Known about the structure:
The complex is a heterodimer of chains A (244) and B (288).
Chain A: E1 4-13, E2 16-26, E3 31-36, H1 42-49, E4 57-62, E5 65-66, H2 74-79, E6 81-84, H3 96-106, H4 112-125, H5 141-153, E7 159-163, H6 171-186, E8 191-194, H7 198-204, E9 207-212, E10 215-220, H8 222-227, H9 232-242
Parallel strand pairs in A: 3-8, 3-9, 6-7, 7-8
Antiparallel strand pairs in A: 1-2, 1-4, 4-5, 9-10
Chain B: H1 14-50, H2 55-62, H3 65-105, H4 112-127, H5 130-143, H6 152-178, H7 181-189, H8 194-209, H9 211-224, H10 236-247, H11 251-284
Helix pairs in contact in B: 3-4, 3-6, 3-10, 3-11, 4-6, 5-6, 6-8, 6-9, 7-8, 9-11, 10-11
Bound molecules: adenosine-5'-triphosphate and magnesium ion.
Residues 13, 16, 18, 36, 38-44, 164 of chain A line the site of adenosine-5'-triphosphate.
Amino acid sequence: xxxxxxxxxxxxxxxxxxxxxxxxxxxxxxxxxxxxxxxxxxxxxxxxxxxxxxxxxxxxxxxxxxxxxxxxxxxxxxxxxxxxxxxxxxxxxxxxxxxxxxxxxxxxxxxxxxxxxxxxxxxxxxxxxxxxxxxxxxxxxxxxxxxxxxxxxxxxxxxxxxxxxxxxxxxxxxxxxxxxxxxxxxxxxxxxxxxxxxxxxxxxxxxxxxxxxxxxxxxxxxxxxxxxxxxxxxxxxxxxxxxx
Amino acid sequence: xxxxxxxxxxxxxxxxxxxxxxxxxxxxxxxxxxxxxxxxxxxxxxxxxxxxxxxxxxxxxxxxxxxxxxxxxxxxxxxxxxxxxxxxxxxxxxxxxxxxxxxxxxxxxxxxxxxxxxxxxxxxxxxxxxxxxxxxxxxxxxxxxxxxxxxxxxxxxxxxxxxxxxxxxxxxxxxxxxxxxxxxxxxxxxxxxxxxxxxxxxxxxxxxxxxxxxxxxxxxxxxxxxxxxxxxxxxxxxxxxxxxxxxxxxxxxxxxxxxxxxxxxxxxxxxxxxxxxxxxxxxxxxxx
Lengths: 244, 288
Ligand SMILES: Nc1ncnc2c1ncn2[C@@H]1O[C@H](COP(=O)(O)OP(=O)(O)OP(=O)(O)O)[C@@H](O)[C@H]1O
Ligand SMILES: [Mg+2]
């Protein structure tokens, strides 16, 4: 069964149509990267999957469950999806470990000791072992973003959504975050990623999805998309972004 | 991780030591200047005061030490009532104020009536003078004759709670709204419910932002509990009034005033300390 299936997803803000019938399927272990110009609807698509935005039409199906059905428990559905934002959004009044274990304790009702043990293990694995009891606003941007990723994967979500997770970072710090994402791919995570980092997209993606004006115009392997894009819009976008 | 990197130990250089000594000397000098200028300042005010034509009679009616000593026990006993009223009113304000703030922050049409009620409440009780609320609650509610007879201090405490809850609710709400919406989104994305998000993420951060104004309201409440005397409760103010009537001397009022100041002083200092610490913490994160 597919982890994620989008059927004809529409979204408008006022009279601006931002998503115009998006179809997309992710199988288990798939890593799909969304590319496209600013305003093409990448973030909006991720937000509708996470139910932060309500779709105007179509379905979001998570492992067979239609989570856009009004009868679904929105909180339960969100707990099955891990999200990392551009702006980290750690809770500054909590320590790193409490940020990381919050959902495990509160939503998944793990015992505190189990949550802490797993949180510490993950933080150590990703080189944050010495930051466990630090307050999260005392970390560097790259460290904060890595903590945010650990927070998102803490409860083994079925699907991970990453929205431009490096665009608020100094170029120096981008590498450490992207390395972590590559580790997650090795570990078999199913991920849907929006990014402007084309070299990262090329190395991490199983499939690249090009969005334009709220539609998916072209889908293919990194080789197809970057070497021989078919649509003129894709060619133009890639030409522009490569020559920045 | 530090393989190959030679370990460096640091001892302050001559330059740094000289700088530190200069800073120490400079700070010693500023303390001295502060002391001298304070003594001069107080001295001048005292001189002017003592040389006013009416000083002798003012001193006799407001600063009579023997009257002060005599009235102290009664005023202190009255203050004990103020402190008890303050204690229960603080608990009441914390509960009611938080409740009102949460109600006012609820979204969704279902909550409209509750939200409207809370809005009317806070508007009303921030507008009406405390004294009038005291009269209405203290004389009006007992007149309904549905409650057993209660001491005036209880009604006074209720009136103070009603007034201050409205202020505190608004301060708390401002704090909650100052928490960036992305924090709510992050919490909801983790699967936390609306209520959990409020309790674990929004309220703790909002509360932090408004600790100084909240403490300020608390100080203000500390002195306003003295108003319960208008209901006939024998608190510090009323006790002082009785003493004044007996001795034909106003010193007991000064005694009561000093006691109220002494009561609020620790809180005021703690507030300053917390504000300063918060300012330092905020600054340490980034640029000045
Ligand atoms: N809450 C909103 N209200 C109104 N319009 C919105 C809202 N959110 C997004 N939009 C609009 O929807 C369009 C798509 O925005 P979106 O954030 O999805 O783009 P994006 O592809 O993620 O762009 P970027 O690469 O710059 O992040 C934009 O035109 C934006 O102005
Ligand atoms: Mg975006």
